[in-house]
Amino acid sequence: WRALDEIGGPVPFKIEYNAVDRQKNDPIGLAKASDIRFVPTFIVKRDGKEVGRIIESSPNGIETDLGALLTGKAHGILSASQDTGAEPASPSH
User: Fold this and answer.
1) Are 84 and 37 in contact (CB under 8 A)?
2) Does the structure show a pLDDT above 60 at 50?
3) What does DSSP say about strands 49-55 and 74-78: parallel, antiparallel, or unpaired?
């Protein structure tokens, strides 16, 4: 939230928050449809398609990694946690 505050003003993208219970369930089934296994998970979509996500903890800091996903400098899964089974994200060219 601090990163969004630092932008100062309206952000040029849509933000949705989805709360889940301990079993990763939510009333509308969005977590299951998005394959949420760990929390927090930040999903970045462009034109309705997922371009990347940050799972549990960000390897380079949330501001840096979220910014990289939003600007297209990175794609795929970013996570500093070893137990997610995620492959490291690739920088975009």
Assistant:
1) yes
2) yes
3) parallel
How far apart (Å, rounded) are the C-alpha atoms in residues 49 and 46?
Answer: 5
pTM for the whole thing? 0.80
Tokens of 61: 């800091």
44 pairs with which residues across the strands? 52
In this structure, are residues 14 and 70 in contact, taking their beta carbons and an 8 Å threshold? no
The pLDDT tens digits for 65-91 are: 988 998 899 999 999 987 776 655 555
Q: Report residue 15 CA to chain centroid gap.
A: 11
- Residue of 86, 84, 54 lying closest to 70 (CA atoms): 54
Cβ atoms 24, 37 nearer than 8 A: yes
Q: Count other Cβ atoms within 10 Å, centred on residue 54.
A: 25
The beta strands (E) that lie in 1-93 are given as 41-46, 49-55, 74-78, 90-91
Closest CA to 45 of 1, 75, 7: 75
